[in-house]
């Protein structure tokens, strides 16, 4: 049912799962969470994770058969660390888009400080034919302090992707409040697990879907966890998700 667009279940390539056995345990957890399709998104973050599309495709091809045998539809993407001149890396083929359509790229900003030039970099990516998605902004320190600091990106219709764990309070109330503040504004287009391990951060969806459906309605949850992730993988435009202010719903 649900489509997990951001997870680190490709073994041995980053800080996610270390081997197939752990990946299989995560896939079992994902099945329990009603996930039927997922896109593995290993880090491309030199120098810590100097992964290349070639290396990741080879690892993915070795992994996909056993994963598909467990009943999942699987895709390959990446989580790209923001850096100056990101457009140069994209044009050089050093970045790996989301899924086979290759339109969307998942970009992570630094957690502690907002770097200069983000708007310009995302604009350049769009001009080159790539559509950036902002990964888990609710976990950035500057967004926790002031969710409104992302107004310019939201005005440019950059899709925000929240972590399901954030919505349910796994990372603490400050991050949960930031996540809900972004959802309230209608700036969020996607929810994903960002799962890293079977024990520390396993796939999670059902509880987050309940939170979102109760607060924003069933259609919002469907768009965030099913429809828009499918559109990302197909390279299609995303559907807006009405926030609390637009719907006029009571806070809970």
Q: Which CATH architecture is right?
A: Alpha-Beta Barrel
Chain oligomer state: single chain
Helix count from the secondary structure assignment: 11
Count of all domains: 1
- The CATH class designation is Alpha Beta
Indicate the proportion of strand residues: 15-25%
Give the helix/strand class.
alpha/beta
Total number of strands: 9
CATH superfamily: Metal-dependent hydrolases
Q: Note the overall shape.
A: globular
Distance between the termini: 26 Å
Spatial strand sequence of the major β-sheet: 3-5-6-7-8-9
Largest sheet: 6 strands, parallel
Low-confidence stretches: 246-252
List keywords for this structure.
six-stranded parallel sheet, disordered C terminus, 252 residues, three-stranded parallel sheet, globular, 9 strands, 11 helices, TIM Barrel, alpha/beta
Give a short synopsis of this structure.
With 252 residues, the protein is α/β, with parallel strands linked by helices. It is built from 11 helices and 9 strands.
Written account of the structure:
The protein is of the alpha/beta class. It has a single domain (2-247), classed as Metal-dependent hydrolases (TIM Barrel), CATH 3.20.20.140. Helix content is 41%, strand content 16%. Helix 9 (206-216) packs across helix 10. The model is unreliable at 246-252 (pLDDT under 50).
């Amino acid at each position: 049912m649900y489509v997990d667009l951001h997870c680190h279940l490709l073994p041995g390539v980053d800080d996610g799962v270390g081997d197939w056995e752990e990946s299989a345990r995560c896939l079992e957890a994902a099945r329990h969470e009603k996930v039927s399709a997922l896109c593995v998104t290993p880090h491309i973050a030199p120098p810590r994770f100097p992964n290349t599309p070639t290396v990741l495709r080879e690892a993915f091809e070795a992994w996909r058969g056993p994963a598909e045998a467990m009943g999942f539809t699987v895709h390959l993407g990446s989580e790209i660390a923001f850096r100056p001149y990101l457009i140069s890396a994209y044009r050089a083929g050093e970045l790996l888009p989301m899924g086979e359509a290759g339109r969307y790229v998942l970009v992570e900003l630094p957690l502690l400080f907002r770097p200069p030039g983000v708007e310009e970099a995302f604009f350049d990516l769009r001009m080159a034919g790539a559509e950036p998605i902002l990964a888990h902004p609710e976990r950035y320190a500057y967004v926790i302090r002031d969710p409104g600091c992302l107004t310019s990106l939201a005005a440019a219709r950059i899709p925000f992707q929240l972590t399901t764990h954030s919505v349910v309070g796994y990372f603490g109330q400050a991050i949960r409040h930031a996540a809900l503040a972004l959802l309230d504004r209608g700036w969020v287009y996607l929810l994903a697990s960002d799962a890293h391990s079977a024990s520390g951060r396993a796939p999670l969806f059902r509880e987050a879907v309940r939170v979102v459906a109760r607060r924003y309605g069933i259609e919002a949850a469907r768009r965030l966890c099913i429809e828009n992730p499918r559109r990302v993988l197909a390279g299609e435009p995303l559907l807006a998700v009405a926030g609390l202010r637009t719907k006029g719903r009571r806070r809970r």
